[in-house]
Structure formats: structure tokens, C-alpha cells
Write a structure and sequence with these properties.
Layout (H helix, E strand, L loop, with lengths): L2 H14 L5 H8 L3 H13 L5 E3 L3 E3 L13 H15 L4 H16 L3 H13 L13 H10 L1 E8 L6 E8 L3 E3 L2 E8 L4 E6 L3 E10 L8 H7 L11
Antiparallel strand pairs: 1-2, 3-4, 3-8, 4-6, 5-6, 6-7
């Protein structure tokens, strides 16, 4: 479970019960007591009204409750516009996630905010840009977040042939009209920048990789700060 999901789960659990000990939370979320203490401290620093201690248990003071999600109409409109822009250059799985997220957003909006969203659909036009394949963006994004090795069949730009690769993806970069995937290529034993739309096949291997010193996305950006990252295959 990702930490953000765990923090939200703890907040909801504390909102629904009177008192929970650290051991109860550790067992519920499958983490150590030390992790629980750190998570509770993070909730408190974020303004969530958790009271109590590790020995006595944690609870919410009388009269406190988890505030519902609230967006100003302009905030919801900005989020929706961003989703529509991304939708125009996303692959089908990523578009499906965007549609699901926007549906959940609308479900908690006030009527005025929903009305503004409907109006923006006709007053703010976002032309589709799907004339070129996008590549497996959702799969790559998941692999980046999970640090998972991808097996791809890649059609190289330089040599014009297709080769199977195992890559350790570092991130996604939008450059011009294409998505680039900086990654460590196990075939070449070096950093390479792949075009997502030239990945003819891609699948998650289930293998996790450890970060390599000096080969993070931040390192790549720092090295290329004064010039664009060129697609490179060999």
C-alpha cells in the first residue's frame, strides 16, 4: 500500500472509531510501530486533529471530524482543463483513469461547480492530438512508480530495426509531440532515452529494480539542462 493511501486510511479509521492503539494501526495496515508513529506525526503536522500517545492510543477530540473534500469552482475547472489537455495526448488506459477520476471529482462538487464544468466543455476547446501512436504510457507510469523492470520490443530510430530490451524506466518526458522514457537499458548497460510510441510491445516483468547512483531522472535533467534530451537508440 502506498503511503498516501495508508495515511488517508488511518485518517478515515480514526474518524470512524473512538480510540486506536498504535499496535491496532500497525496490524491493520501491515506496517511496523515505527511507521505508525511516523504516519501519525505526519497527519498531525498536516493539521489533522489526532490526539493521544503511542501507549494510550490515538483518537480525535470531541467535536472534530474529517472535513469533506471541497473545491472552489475555479479550482475544479482548472483540474478538469488539465485532465482534458492530458487526455488529448494519453493512451487508452490513461484516458480511462482520467475519466474515472473526473467522475469522482464531479460527484463531490457543488452544483455551481458542476455547472461551470459543463459550460467550460463548450467554451474551452481542446483539439484531439492522436494522429500518432502514444505508446504504453499507463504501463510506463506504473513501472516508474513501482520501480519495475519493463520488457519491451523497441523499434530504434538510428538503426531502424526492432530489438527486445529490458529497461529500468526513470520517468516520462513530453518533448514536442512525443513522450520520451529515460531508462537504464540492460542490453546496452547504459542510460538510454526511448520514444514511447516506438515501443511495439511492452509488459511488466514483475521484477523490481534498485535506483542506480547518478542515474535518476533528476540527474538526467541536470546533465541536459542546457539542451533537449535527444531520443537515442543503439
Amino acid at each position: 500500500m502506498k503511503r498516501l493511501d495508508r495515511l488517508l486510511g488511518m485518517a478515515l479509521l480514526l474518524s470512524a472509531r473512538r480510540r486506536l492503539k498504535a499496535a491496532d494501526l500497525a496490524g491493520r495496515f501491515g506496517v511496523t510501530l515505527r511507521t505508525v508513529y511516523r504516519d501519525v506525526r505526519a497527519l498531525q503536522e498536516a493539521g489533522f486533529p489526532v490526539a493521544g500517545s503511542a501507549g494510550d492510543g490515538y483518537l480525535l477530540p470531541p467535536g472534530s471530524q474529517l472535513r469533506p473534500l471541497a473545491f472552489e469552482p475555479a479550482e475544479a475547472e482548472a483540474l478538469t482543463m488539465g485532465a482534458r489537455l492530458l487526455e488529448a495526448i494519453a493512451d487508452a488506459p490513461l484516458r480511462a483513469r482520467l475519466h474515472s477520476a473526473m467522475a469522482k471529482l464531479e460527484a463531490v462538487l457543488a452544483p455551481e461547480a458542476v455547472r461551470r464544468l459543463r459550460e467550460s466543455e463548450s467554451t474551452v476547446l481542446v483539439p484531439a492530438s492522436r494522429s500518432e501512436p502514444t505508446g504504453p504510457l499507463a504501463l510506463v507510469l506504473e513501472a516508474v512508480q513501482q520501480r519495475q523492470v519493463l520488457a519491451v520490443l523497441y523499434h530504434g530510430v538510428a538503426r531502424g530495426n526492432s530489438t527486445p530490451r529490458e529497461i529500468e524506466p526513470l520517468g516520462l518526458v513530453r518533448l514536442g509531440r512525443v513522450w520520451l522514457v529515460p531508462a537504464y537499458c540492460r542490453l546496452r548497460e547504459d542510460l538510454r532515452v526511448f520514444r514511447a510510441d516506438r515501443m511495439l510491445e511492452a509488459r511488466a516483468t514483475g521484477e523490481r529494480f534498485e535506483p542506480r547512483p547518478g542515474l535518476s531522472l533528476e540527474d538526467v535533467v541536470r546533465m541536459k539542462s542546457e539542451e533537449p534530451i535527444p531520443p537515442r537508440a543503439s
